[in-house]
Amino acid sequence: MQEAWLQLQCPGCSVSWEERVSDLPAPETQFACDDCGTERSLSEFMRTARDLEVLQEFTEA
Ligand SMILES: [Zn+2]
């Protein structure tokens, strides 16, 4: 699969950033925001439905 960059956005403080899909764990993994410490499943940090889709496809493959 091609290297893709995903847009992430914190549901707590709204900071946004990008990560390579290959650097991310599965969508249900607990993930903490570096900025505010909000802990949610990684799927809730995906900025758009498309970003979540790409993450799911990548981690299921
Ligand atoms: Zn945050």
Characterization of this structure:
The protein is an alpha+beta fold and 61 residues long. It has one domain. The protein contains one helix and four strands; from the N terminus they run ββββα. The strands form two sheets. It has a two-stranded antiparallel ribbon with strand order 1-2. A two-stranded antiparallel sheet has the order 3-4. The model has no long low-confidence stretch (mean pLDDT 95). The structure holds zinc ion (ZN). Residues 10, 12-13, 15, 33, 35-36, 38 line the site of zinc ion (ZN).
What hetero molecules are in the model? zinc ion
Report, as a whole number of angstroms, the end-to-end distance. 9 Å
Number of domains: 1
Taking the sheet with the most strands, its summary is: 2 strands, antiparallel
Q: Calculate Rg over CA atoms.
A: 11 Å
Strand content: 25-35%
Query: Could you tell me the mean pLDDT?
Result: 95
Strand order of the largest sheet: 1-2
Work out the helicity level: 10-25%
Number of strands: 4
| Category from helices, strands and their pairing | alpha+beta
**Which sequence of SSEs, written as H and E, runs from N to C?**
EEEEH
Q: What best-fitting shape do the alpha-carbon axes yield? A: globular
Low-confidence stretches: none
Total of DSSP H or I helical runs spanning 4+ residues: 1
